[in-house]
Design a protein that fits this description.
The protein has 19 helices and 14 strands. It is of the alpha/beta class. The protein has two domains: 193 residues, Hen1, N-terminal domain (c-terminal autoproteolytic domain of nucleoporin nup98, 2-Layer Sandwich); 205 residues, 3-Layer(aba) Sandwich (Rossmann fold), CATH 3.40.50.150. Strands 2-3-4-1-5-7-6 form a seven-stranded antiparallel sheet. A seven-stranded mixed sheet has the order 10-9-8-11-12-14-13, with helices on both faces.
Length: 466
């Protein structure tokens, strides 16, 4: 298996300092399951590439195993010698551990500087398909390319395999790149060559840290990394949610929550929830849906208003719902109060009859997390099937992004955003949806308005025509 890391940062040969491996030498390292070799196929000031080649000894891997355990033939006849797996993660930690830790004695400033990197994995088993690759890497800011292989080129009718050559590109620190690969390679493979115990849980949290806590696929990543061991997986999610909790934010802000960091100086989140709450109250609604309710921030505000007699929060993340339940202290509420509020686990891209018959629905910063097919499905679920009398939708105003100096040009406020619309784009979408499904829509700004670029958040209030 082969990992190639390339940069065109000038001078590109700085990669040698970052990796602590000299570009002019082939270096080999003994590992428990074979050898690792580091070499540079190209190294000049314009472009530099470093390769980590793993030469696995399949006999050495099973030497000493209990012959009465499992399928002995399976220990020898497998793909472990040829694909990127947990073996490569171990090699990254042992051979490139100093770089992964973010240390560079001779060029210390480089270790903390985001640089343009390209990493190629030959060959990666992806048990989940190319879509899974994009779902995992893109929220971390990577551009992804994947080439899938046939099971056998001589017999194309046999179909495609689970094996891909994968290339990812981003401007990141080398430490982040290596850490992401270290954690995620076994996740794609959904397999490990060693026993998974409590130490793996601690390793996941130590290496994943805040970026994993903010990742939209943290549940899937944690489950696969911990080999579907239910007790460990539940512990991991519980501790990751603690990293996300607002209470801990007051003491130590989450580095990965870039959208909240940008907006904090404006208290934009509070203004957004206040605007949505005011719109829902003005609609006269008695029953309200909070679709994509997350950790329950809006639900808490709704619960404090006596006007709302029936409140339902729905989210695709079961763990977020558990956290919302804790935030709202549902087990401590008086019975009459608790009966007003219900949490539902479900997806907004499938018709759900539990959502029908409500006066109003809120979609607060939800639509920008959906790609085009899922957004089209959500439109039908909400506006065609559920048909609340009022729908309030908020989404970022892409034009306002220039007001934040810390946000690079062309970058979204959050890694998981699939789009950020201009005011014209949002209004065109909203008017098309309203016209198609029998609604009228009006638009309101949220947050401080600029004469040129408008407000940071844009809100559409849909009202069903009688």
């Amino acid at each position: 298996m082969l990992l190639t890391i390339t940069t065109d940062h000038q001078p590109a040969t700085d990669l040698g300092y970052l990796l602590h491996k000299h570009p002019e030498r082939l270096q080999s390292f003994d590992l428990a399951f074979g050898k690792a070799h580091v070499f540079y196929p190209e190294a000049d000031v314009q472009r530099c590439s470093a390769c980590l080649l793993l030469d696995v000894d399949p006999v050495g891997m099973v030497r000493g195993k209990n012959r009465n355990q499992g399928d002995l033939l399976g220990h020898y006849v497998n793909d472990r010698s040829y694909v990127a797996s947990s073996l490569l993660s171990v090699a990254i930690a042992q051979v490139l551990g100093t770089a992964m830790a973010g240390r560079c004695n001779q060029r210390p400033e480089l270790a903390s500087t985001p640089l343009p990197f390209e990493a190629r994995l030959d060959v990666l088993p992806v048990r989940g398909g190319e879509r899974f690759l994009h779902e995992i890497f893109e929220p971390l800011g990577y551009e992804v390319e994947a080439e899938r292989y046939l099971l056998d080129p001589e017999f194309p009718q046999w179909g495609e395999s689970v094996y891909y050559s994968v290339t990812i590109r981003a401007t990141v620190t080398l430490s982040d790149l290596l850490t992401h690969l270290y954690v995620l390679i076994p996740v794609f493979d959904n397999e490990k060559h060693y026993f998974v115990g409590e130490d793996e849980l601690e390793k996941l949290l130590a290496k994943g840290g805040a970026w994993l806590a903010a990742h939209p696929q943290k549940e899937q990543i944690s489950r696969r990394y911990l080999r579907n061991r239910h007790s460990l997986y539940r512990q991991a999610l519980s501790r990751l949610l603690e990293m996300e909790s607002p209470e801990s934010d007051e003491e130590s802000p989450r580095p990965a929550a870039q959208e909240e960091t940008l907006e904090r100086t404006l208290s934009l989140n509070d203004q957004r929830h206040g605007a949505v709450l005011a719109a829902l109250k003005a609609s006269g609604a008695r029953s309200v849906l909070d679709l994509g309710c997350g950790e329950g921030k809006l639900l808490r505000d709704l619960l404090n208003e006596k006007q709302f007699e029936q409140i339902v929060g729905m989210d695709v993340s079961f763990r977020s719902l558990e956290f919302a339940q804790k935030r709202l202290k549902l087990d401590r509420l008086p019975e009459r109060q608790a009966q007003r509020l219900k949490l539902l686990h479900g997806s907004l891209i499938y018709r759900d009859r539990r959502l029908e018959g409500f006066d109003a629905a809120a979609l607060v910063e939800v639509i920008e997390h959906l790609d085009s097919p899922r957004l089209a499905a959500l439109e039908r679920v909400v506006f065609e099937f559920a048909q609340p009398k009022t729908v309030v939708v908020t989404t970022p105003n892409q034009e306002y992004n220039v007001m934040w100096e810390t946000l690079p040009a062309g970058q979204f406020r959050h890694n998981d955003h699939r789009f950020e619309w201009t005011q014209a784009e949002f209004q065109a979408w909203a008017q098309q949806v309203a016209g198609q499904h029998g609604y009228a829509v009006r638009f309101l700004p949220v947050g401080p308005e600029d004469e040129t670029v408008g407000s940071p958040t844009q809100m559409g209030m849909f009202t069903r025509r009688l």
